[in-house]
Amino acid sequence: MKNIKKSLVVGIGSALVDILIEESDDFLKTAGAQKGGMTLVENPDFINKLLAQTNQKPCIVPGGSACNTIVGIACLGGKARFIGKRGKDELGSLLENTLHKCNVETCLYVSNSETGRVLSIITPDAQRSMFTFLGASSQTKPEEITKEQFKDALIVHIEGYLLFNKDLFISALKTAKSAGAKISLDLASYTVVESTKTLLGQYIKDYVDILIANEDEARAFTGHSDEKEALSILSQYSEIAVVKMGKRGSLIYNNGEIIPVGIIGDGCALDTTGAGDLWAAGFLFGLANGYSIKEAAYIGAACGYEVCQVIGAQIPEQGWKRIKNICGI
Questions:
Q1: Percent of the chain whose pLDDT exceeds 90
Q2: pTM (two decimals)
Q3: CATH topology of domain 8-14+64-111+143-327
Q4: DSSP output for 247-289
Q5: Residue 113: pLDDT above 70?
Q6: CA–CA gap between residue 186 and residue 205 (Å, rounded)
């Protein structure tokens, strides 16, 4: 691994627990989900009722977009910290204990509300569609984001879901920038982009240094289906812009150059939950530890492939060993 003085990546986002089930397209339609998207629900009972309608045994693992990314960075051997809010309940304890086991430094506030959770319905095409109850995770206050939390951070990674809490999103941007960190923003979901496009346009150009999107999110923001055209527009907003294209790899813009990076493996997937989050983990780990843009994207591709071979966003130990071996970490 290459050594540089500052390599800490701090993530801020929703502290959530993922509940994953494999189900049919008919089940998804009956549930009223937007395929490949994310729907917010106000009550955990909605998720409980859907779980009662399936015969599939759910898989329960820590989740949340930025949290998944930060765990990935730590598992690669990077320095990582996560900021969020959880409930005083069993799911909250499970989340925090798992982060500690993964060597993630935590700054988790605690709320009397229930820990947030996401029901991810995985269809036979490996696509995941989500229902999210934010619970305690949505109660982080702007004033709880402090410059001290970003001390020594090279990169602060913000998940797009934070856009639903405008004041918190703006506070995170301003505080991270004042701490001297580079800011990475993952657009998270095309449904998020569609709902917050105006807010994005107002703030990302002045604050975001690394802008990460998949092809659907890029299209929702730019209005262009052609990924290169979409990337050209995204590049006007940040120093580094990324469009992830699933089986077709990724395109990265930096310093006037478009860098194409292919996939690792055969492109087959058991479950795409966390694919984008873990791609970001590899990419940000690479950038934070002195690797080139292309090398960092290659690490991202390796992480994205491995997480697609399991249910959920948690890569097993053998998977991390394969990633480190193939990427020379």
A1: 78
A2: 0.89
A3: UDP-N-acetylmuramoyl-L-alanine:D-glutamate ligase (3.40.1190)
A4: GG-EEEEETTEEEEE--SS-S--S--TTHHHHHHHHHHHHHHT
A5: yes
A6: 14
